[in-house]
Give the backbone structure.
Amino acid sequence: MSDSEAIVDFATLEREKENITANRNGHSALALQQTFSVPRNQRQQQLAAAKERFTRQLEEAHAESPDPLDAYVKFVEWTIDSYPSGKSSDSGLLPLLELATRTFKDDPQYKYDLRYLNLWLQYANLVEKPDMVYAYLVANDIGQAFSILYEEYANTLERQGRCVRTKADEIYRLGLARKAKPLSSLQLKYEEFQTRMLTARPEAQADADENASSTSAIPGRRTALGERSTGSRAPGQSTASSSAAPAPRLGNATNRGKISVFVDGPSAQDGQDYQSNEWNNLGSHAAIVKENKPEAGPWAGERLHQVSMQTPKTPKFTVLKDNEVSYLRIKRPTDH
């Protein structure tokens, strides 16, 4: 029986739904059933054997296959299906994605390959600062032909708060200038983004404009201090400021008509002038985390400084004396 004809027992998936983490590309129902229907001890043995098999296939692909990326894609897909709980030390998904993305970062064959971009997007979803990953992709022209890159980058910036929403607008306009495909999807996402910005509080938009005057989501590009780009540029090519349309002025939210997406004409060089400062190495996830943590050292001879807390003094309790109280004289009964 083929996989398309196999019957999936959804009762098994229902019992294990708390152990299934949502995935951007979804999960195979058949693979989930095969994973949860095997006893745990037996499952661990099967997973270990499969990992060894996929690891050998990676080595063989580099030596023999004209498309070694395909072996990494299959390894990642198998890992996601076999470890549906998501990122964990057992699955090794994060190190695997790190290996796959770094292995082909300088290979021009895969800079315009959607499979390679999807590996980067999955990696970005697992790290603490995905915006750094997207900025690296834009700086190195990885996946620049696909709208999903600009959509995910802009969504990440928008979720970070009101101070970076203008940066998100800049990323949308960059994708439109580069005519990223599918262009209709990117235009729709940009219209939805503009609608959300129209309904945002005026002070939120003011803060975003002020923040965007000194920083940019595109590496190597400055706004307040003038344009600067150290990347190589062909003779006669215009500066970076001409490759994207000026940000539209957001008016009153009550005037809601059909939002027209502004895109530069052919003179915009299709966003090619956004080549930015060289950024050859993103760095591993472990190295980035290590930079943000203090180094461990011996505890011998160390003192733990404590802040002494003084107990506040309570006021003395004053007994209330009522001078107007009349005392009653109690007479003892006398014998008659």
DSSP finds twelve helices and no strands in the chain.
